[in-house]
Amino acid sequence: MNPIIDIKAIASGDVKAFEVLYLAYYNKVLTYTTSLLHNSVKAEDATQDVFLKIWRNRHNLVEGENVNSYIYMTARRVVLDIYRDEKYAQRHKEWAESNRPEESVEVSCINEIEDIAAKMIECMPPKRKEVFMLSRMNGLTAKEIADKMDLSIHTVNKHIALALSSLKKKLNDYLTILVLLLFID
């Protein structure tokens, strides 16, 4: 036996009346959206969206209107929206990929910067180099480095600051060029 759907009560915001509609049509709508989307997860989301749209637009419901047609029409619109959004996302992805600067230029610039930085680190005084490597490559804190190397935290921080300052001075021009390459169309 089919439950009685009280459209007037739903239109006025009666949650219990809406629940009757939801329970009566949920599985039917899920079957319909699954047949259109061929994906159970997307169909579940679409079905939830259908009932959410019906609830949000409940004030537009008209007593005596064919509820079955209204629900399936809403479901069809939700599915079409999903297809449209997916198509738009795919077009945007393709556009973004086709309008990227040449990767080889970016990669070679990054590789050059990494080579220069590695050479600079190799040329640092031994303690500064060791402190910097423990900090930036091994992720140790200043306290951990100080304990490990039997130095004061102040000395460790000073070595890190000097290492970063020399790297920044030498690499600043390269980094500006890299940023320009990455963000210019």
Keywords:
185 residues, mainly alpha, Rna Polymerase Sigma Factor, Chain: A, Arc Repressor Mutant, subunit A, 8 helices, 80% helix
User: Unreliable segments (pLDDT under 50, ≥5 consecutive)?
Assistant: none
Q: At CATH's second level, what is the architecture of the largest domain? A: Orthogonal Bundle
- Overall morphology: elongated
CATH top level assignment of the largest domain: Mainly Alpha
SSE series: HHHHHHHH
Any idea what the radius of gyration is? 31 Å
N-C termini distance:
63 Å
CATH topology of the largest domain: Rna Polymerase Sigma Factor, Chain: A
Q: Strand portion, in percent? A: under 5%
Question: What's the gist of this structure?
Answer:
This protein is mainly α. Helix content is 80%, strand content 0%.
Describe the structure.
With 185 residues, the chain is mainly alpha-helical. The protein has two domains: 92 residues, RNA polymerase sigma factor, region 2, helix turn helix motif (Rna Polymerase Sigma Factor, Chain: A, Orthogonal Bundle), CATH 1.10.1740; 81 residues, Winged helix-like DNA-binding domain superfamily/Winged helix DNA-binding domain (Arc Repressor Mutant, subunit A), CATH 1.10.10. α2 packs across α4 and α6 packs across α8.
